[in-house]
Amino acid sequence: MCAPRIVQLAHDGADHAPRPPRRTLRGAAGLAALAVATTAHRAAAHSGSVIDLTHAPGPDTPVWPGNPPFAMVPVAPQALGGFAQNAIALWEHTGTHLDAPLGGSAESLSVTDLVAPLIVIDISAKAAFDVDATVTIDDIDAFERIYGRIPERAFVAMYSGWERRLAVPAAFVNLDDHGTPHTPGFAADATEYLVAQRDIVGAGVDTLSLDRGADLDYGAHTALLGAGRYGVEMLAALGTVAPTGATVVIGAPERGGGTGGPCRVLALT
To answer: Rounded to the nearest 10 degrees, how much is the dihedral formed by the CA atoms of 114, 118, 119, 125?
Structure first.
């Protein structure tokens, strides 16, 4: 999501918020070797299915209010004897996309943190009756009573069932008469808890914002991105993934200096 104003507010908030210590960055060569070894080990252990958690961006993809829609124009048609090629125009935070940590950029993320245990917290029952529902600390406690403690360096995703609204993009954004969106998200204190007490690598949602849409303080963004973690917004098919046991693989964008960007997200079950 992260329109420029939201990025600025999150930066301002992060300047005054406590930041849990970040892991020391490894050298590039050592980091790449470790990532290859880690990914190879997980791939060898994987014997189930692969679930695509990605909404491909298109002209009808819902966007945060004020952001322009995705556009694609053919510039080199194969019919003219060349290789088919399109020019695309989109804001970085369009479709299923990554939000980079504050003060960092997408390509600076540790690749080992882009392959992580996937935790799915289901709040779809209350979101069906409350469009402003949030993942709370009580929801986290209830989850852990059933499924056990959330492991360190996990990726925690909120499933609200919001993608059922995608057939009508306006219902997905869900603006009120004053132009304020109303969608589920993470509560700020729950996000702080996941960062400080569970040391998560990142968090994701099936809506356009880590925060509930009506929260103009963007506390979840600040708590997560300000602590050096990343977010992924507009995830797909989370309702088909078990609450625990899967591994998420996030194909993050690598543009130098990018604040994020569209990404391919897979769940290995």
So the answer is: 100
- Whether the CB-CB separation of 265 and 53 falls below 8 Å is answered with yes
pLDDT attached to residue 34: 37
pLDDT at 71 over 70: yes
Nearest to 185 by CA among 164, 162, 205, 165: 205
Q: What architecture is domain 4-15+26-268?
A: 3-Layer(bba) Sandwich (3.50)
Instruction: Identify the residue whose tokens are 């929260």.
Output: 215
Phi, psi of 266 (to 5 degrees): -125, 145
- Of the candidates 207, 198, 116, the one whose C-alpha atom is nearest the C-alpha of residue 160 is 207
Please write the tens of the pLDDT for every residue from 10-19.
Answer: 556 555 444 4
The pLDDT tens digits of the residues spanning 75-133 come to: 887 666 678 888 777 777 788 999 999 988 888 899 999 999 999 999 999 999 999 99
**Would you tell me the crossing angle of helices 188-198 and 137-147 to the nearest 10 degrees?**
50
Neighbour order of strands in the sheet with 50-52? 50-52, 264-268, 246-251, 115-122, 155-159, 202-205, 230-233, 97-99, 260-262
- pTM higher than 0.85, yes or no? no
Q: Which regions of 95-153 does DSSP assign to beta strands (E)?
A: 97-99, 115-122, 134-135
